[in-house]
Every structure is written in C-alpha cells, then in structure tokens.
Amino acid sequence: MERPTTEIVTSGGTKAVIKTYLTARESNQLKEVLYANLKVSMTDLATGKTAVQDIPASVLLEQERKALELLIVSLNDSKENLADRILDLPSSEYDAIIAEVNKIARPDFRKEK
User: What is the pLDDT of residue 55?
Assistant: First the structure.
C-alpha cells in the first residue's frame, strides 16, 4: 500500500519526499534504538520504581538516522543511497529535512506556536 507523502524543498534547492506517518512497526523500530540502551533491574520492575540514567547521547543520533531511513522516500527524485546522500548535504539543508522528519517521528517534541 502506498503511503501519503509530502515534499519539501530546502533553501539550497534539495527536494525531499517524506512519508507523512510512521506505521506502528516503524514506530517500534525507533523505540528499540532507545530501549536497547536502557538498563532496568528486576528489583526496579518489582517495586515499580525506575530511573533512567546513563543513556549515551549517541542514541539520539541513532534514532535520527533510523527515522530518516524509515521516512525519506527520495532525494532529488532518486531513491538511491539515501542515507549517505542526506549526510553529505550542507548542514542547513540536513537540519531542514530532519526538522520535518522529527515532526512525524517525534511529534511530542514539535514546537507549536
């Protein structure tokens, strides 16, 4: 089934086609990146008291890469080698694309005005 997409054009003229939503399976794949780095003891589970500590900051970059992989359909009308091509963009263009991806992948972090 084809999913709806949206198209953005960055200030540098790069055209990105992005899926408009994550499936539940894809959302779980993003969560797996975070949960793989959490440590919870059986005592914590038994008492219901948990604390999140010592999560590597690199988890955020891993989640960002995974979100790009899941949501970007094409870049400048090409579906080839998307991950590397996105990372080779100027930082300002990458930031514009990731801002759109985060609106979908991390809606609770979206800043409403």
Answer: 74
